[in-house]
Amino acid sequence: MRMLTRIAAPLLALAFAACSSIDVNTNYDPAATQKLEGYRTYAWLPQPTGMDERVYNPIVGARVEQTVDRYLLARGYQKVETGDNPDFLIGWHGAIHNALKAETVDAYYGYPWGGPFTDPFYAGGAVTMPETYMREYEEGSLILDIVDPRSKQLVWRGTAQAELEANASAEQQQQKLDASVKELLERFPPKPK
Questions:
Q1: Exposed e or buried b for every residue in 159-169, given b needs 16+ CB within 10 A?
Q2: Cys-Cys link to 32, which of 111, 114, 128, 155 (CB 3.0-4.6 A)?
Q3: If we measure between CA atoms, which residue out of 136, 189, 125, 132 comes closest to residue 164?
């Protein structure tokens, strides 16, 4: 029984880690809110370049653009070439970095031991203290930028951050990208307050 209680807490911490969510934030130019509502056509900015080849490579670039295109087209936006005078330009950036997370787990799930099930070594069923574990993991960030093509000014930015699974398949990676893009673009255009 003691061995089970010792390994239950770390296993529970890992189970909670698997239920990671996507953190989404957006920011925009309040003066451009009305203009953003009228946007209907878009074109892509040139693909970004960066040092991290896990993020900045043709496969990831194509996946990001195809996912965003699929979502925008479903919402009635039309993709055009840069020379066709689009209403807005869209670009993306990404990053992968290490992060730490503290997770506290109660080894007995909040219930004190006592009564006929008391372990004689625990002096009448003493309550155990919760244990805190530090977990290091990789976090991925996706940034989508909406740029006014005439002024070349950034008018909207959305950022999605999520924990990356160590050995995720291409399908799992695509599901995480789909969820991130959907949550980001549900906030575009911003609703005036």
A1: bbbbbbeeeee
A2: 155
A3: 136
